[in-house]
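Before surveying the methods themselves, it helps to consider a single example record, giving the amino acid sequence and backbone structure tokens:
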Amino acid sequence: MAKKFNSQQEHDAYVEEKQKNRTIWGVIMASSLGTLIEWYDFYIFGSLAVVLATKFFPADNPTAAFLSTLATFAAGFVVRPFGALFFGRLGDIIGRKYTFLVTLLIMGFSTFLIGCVPSYETIGFVAPVLVLILRLLQGLALGGEYGGAATYVAEYSQPHRRGYWTSWIQTTATAGLFISLIVILVTKTSLTAEEFDNWGWRIPFWISILMVGVSYVIRRNMKESPLFAKAKKEGKTSTNPLKESFGNKFNFKFVLLALFGAVMGQGVVWYTGQFYAMSFMQKVMNIESAQVDSMMALALFLGTPLFVLFGWLSDKVGRKPIMMIGMLLAIIAYRPIYKTMYHSVDIQGKEVTKDGLTEKRTAKVHEKIATDSIITFHTEKVFTDGFSMKKDSIVHWSASGPIMIDGKPQTPVVKEAITVNADTRWLLILMVFIQVVFVTMVYGPIAAFLVEMFPVRIRYTSMSLPYHIGNGVFGGLLPAVATYLVTSAKSSGHAEWFLQGLWYPIVVAGVCLVIGTIYLKTKNSNLDEDVV
């Protein structure tokens, strides 16, 4: 049935509204696809951290190799603020569109090349150096991508729906992580364990180049943001965005407030719920990696629509209340959640239906050392409640006996993988999902919150720096810092060593909550008035 109008003016307003909606959906699709691919590229490294530790670092100390991998992963985060400064400046001078075309290409080729780097066994320490360089390029590219996409969508949005429209950009980070997990899972199930270990792990990196090509074609046909185009036409763009953003005391005050009153806390909540949860299940709880990937993927899939819900809600009640409540809930709930997760896989005292022990001896020849052996003691246990456990203890023996270090036999390398039953799997999915809810509360409104703090002439630069320091430094360092705290606490015999990594996000989010509650305003801003 055709819609009836009382006047020509009402009809024209209706047609104009429909046209704006079609335009904004096209803008969101083009921006989101590229941003999603960049997040996929950036996070595929973290999703494969356990595997990459064995490929690009010495294998004789798995804990040190994993920490080195996390440090390389974190390096990409640390340089994100530099990418924000460099590409933010370009975006405020030459435009949003062309800047994030460049970031897309840099990210895509860097990711593809990581999948081409030979292993440590092949080229030695050159391997981790090459991976580090490519990881730094990824970080620089992402530093310029997010601010451009968020600004671009926000500058097309209507003021009363800005939280809703920009929240679609916010789904891309989680969607990118979700897709990375799915690609890894499909690759693992399509290959044998030996094939995946030998070369299959490279496939998720290679796939990136195809997705980047599609996104590049779409983005190339986009138009410039209307607010930026208007400012440029009127000669009101900045000639020195860095100086205006950070040399101006008034504007710099808002940069600091955005960082310490919102983004710092948002960053640690995001990486706790979506990265540390995965690392915790793999390395602390020793759950089999494919099972962890599937549980994480389902929790992320179920939680992703909430980004849009909380973005929409922020248009009604303000950005600040939703973000602050999300931080508060995370601070209160983290320790109980992780305590529940850890104790859910306690296999001590479980009734065993099968218990086997096998020994495998393989010869290994070193260039300057006599022939020695690597002995693997393989244990497999199946429990009556559906749990199972596989453990390999690997010991190096020389011709004269066990290899000695500082007068003591070398400590065996132990690899353990627990497979949980269906009930525990759903419990863990619920625990991760609750954390994802916290993530959506703090992250859903953040793009609208940031773009509304700064004028159009320096918006790209001003919002990008606090975002990438908060997420790249405070958030990006979380997996490495938390893993270090857990490892140290375990070595010192702390009773709840497995919870000690949580002090980092709890303290950082707590400080941010106090600052944000006191100093941030609740009312949303109208950035359309900031063109001058």
Remarks:
- The mean pLDDT is 83.
- The first helix runs from residue 8 to 47.
- The longest strand covers residues 352-364.
